[in-house]
Write a structure and sequence with these properties.
Length: 426
């Protein structure tokens, strides 16, 4: 009888070690988190490569205190690996397949994703900008980025570059080269207007380029961004991407003015050559919290209409362009039991902010989420953050949530309007 070996399936994109836990990311972007010591032990041995029989012996010796037979332990392990939650993650084969990329580090708390604001400068002046770009003209220090990845090594799986407008950073090409060598996936979030000026070899280093779409013509661009020829320049950049076989995503913020034009925006994205499109809504951050911005925000009924429209658009255009999952779907059923808040130090977010993902602003200060304001009591120094991810020091998240609530109060808004993923009552 052949020995039954266990491997991770082809549905697995990557594995990330985080503290005493293991996170498995499938190719649909879903995170499967294993925190129970026995489950972690089983998954870790599968990552290393093992047969079912050998794994049963190890589990029996380490965890089983009764006279239970090894064969019975094999059955228990196989049942665990073939539950509805796990069946797509593991394969039972007569050989060990090539394993997916492994990042992170056991008993350390390195994130799987970093979002880096390269600059606060922008060539647009969007009325909904959460960063209030151009309020300062700060560029992140490229030497600090090099030092950061000297510390992190290759523990991070994804890096996203954003701004302001990231292409305005004078050392953009150098930063791309540094980041490309330290991660498996490199993303660019841009308004796209300056892409046609960039070196093609640099653009090809990105695994994912997302371009914000602010209108269907130059007139609409001017109303939203204050830039008169934005759409014309965007089309020029998209032609460059298409001609070089570089795929890209188009992202659209839905508001009261364009809610009934979602169909036209999908058509526009197809004409521009985008491979995917993603819809989102505005949070009350930055300029979007100024006066006379009511038109930016959808009511609950309008959000439901937008969601229904999106589902219909998937059916109508699904063969021509992929419409990516809306955030509403990702977080519609969140709860304390399914969130990541207790993964390390009771982070006050339902999502992976402050645990598996972190943001770095243009001043090289760290935030659990890119949307957090750059207030002194809501940013963290590099030295403190290093101690946090190494497990040497903790962040007082209860104090952090109080600071967020205080900030929101000064802005005359509720914390849940600011961010729907905050856990206020811990």
């Amino acid at each position: 009888m052949k020995t039954l070996k266990i491997s991770l399936s082809k549905n697995v994109d990557n594995i990330h070690y985080y503290g005493s836990s293991i996170a498995i990311f499938d190719k649909l972007g879903k995170i499967h988190l294993f925190k129970n010591p026995i489950e972690v032990f089983i998954v870790n041995n599968i990552v290393q490569g093992i047969t079912l029989n050998d794994l049963a012996f190890l589990v029996h010796d380490k965890f089983i205190q009764s006279d239970e037979k090894v064969n019975d332990v094999e059955i228990i392990i196989k049942n665990f690996l073939t539950t509805d939650q796990n069946v797509l993650l593991f394969d039972f084969k007569n050989y060990i397949d090539e394993m997916p990329v492994v990042t992170g580090q056991r008993n350390k708390f390195f994130p799987t994703r970093l979002q880096i604001d390269l600059t606060n400068k922008c060539n647009l002046f969007c009325k909904h900008c959460y960063k209030e770009a151009n309020k300062s003209a700060t560029n992140i220090d490229v030497e600090k980025i090099k030092d950061l990845f000297q510390f992190l090594g290759s523990t991070v799986h994804e890096i996203g570059l954003t701004g302001g407008e990231p292409l305005l950073h004078p050392d953009f090409d150098t930063i791309v080269e540094v980041c490309r060598n330290k991660c498996q996936k490199l993303e660019l979030n841009t308004n796209g207007i300056l892409i046609y000026k960039k070196r093609k070899d640099i653009l090809k280093k990105f695994d994912f380029i997302s371009i914000s779409l602010y209108g269907l013509n130059d007139e609409q661009y001017y109303c939203t961004t204050g830039f008169a020829s934005g759409f014309s320049m965007l089309k020029k950049s998209c032609e460059v991407l298409k001609s070089n076989n570089i795929s890209f995503n188009v992202s659209l913020i839905i508001n009261k003015l364009n809610l009934n034009e979602m169909d036209s925006y999908v058509e526009c994205a197809i004409d521009l050559g985008a491979s995917t499109i993603q819809f989102g809504t505005v949070s009350k951050l930055g300029r979007a919290n100024d006066k006379n911005t009511e038109w930016l925000f959808l009511s609950s009924n309008e959000k439901r209409d937008a969601y229904r429209n999106m589902r219909q658009l998937i059916s109508k255009y699904g063969k021509r362009i992929k419409i990516l999952e809306w955030e509403r779907e990702v977080y519609k059923n969140y709860s304390l039991s399914s969130s990541f808040y207790n993964l390390y130090g009771a982070s006050p977010f339902y999502c992976t902010a402050g645990t598996l993902q972190w943001s770095i602003n243009e001043d090289f200060l760290f935030k659990p989420c890119v949307l957090m304001p750059n207030e002194e009591n809501l940013v963290i120094s590099y030295e403190k953050w290093k101690k946090y991810v190494e497990g040497i020091d903790f962040i007082l998240w209860n104090e952090y949530i109080k600071n967020i609530c205080s900030y929101c109060s000064k802005q005359a808004q509720s914390p849940t309007d600011y961010c729907e993923r905050l856990i206020i009552n811990q």
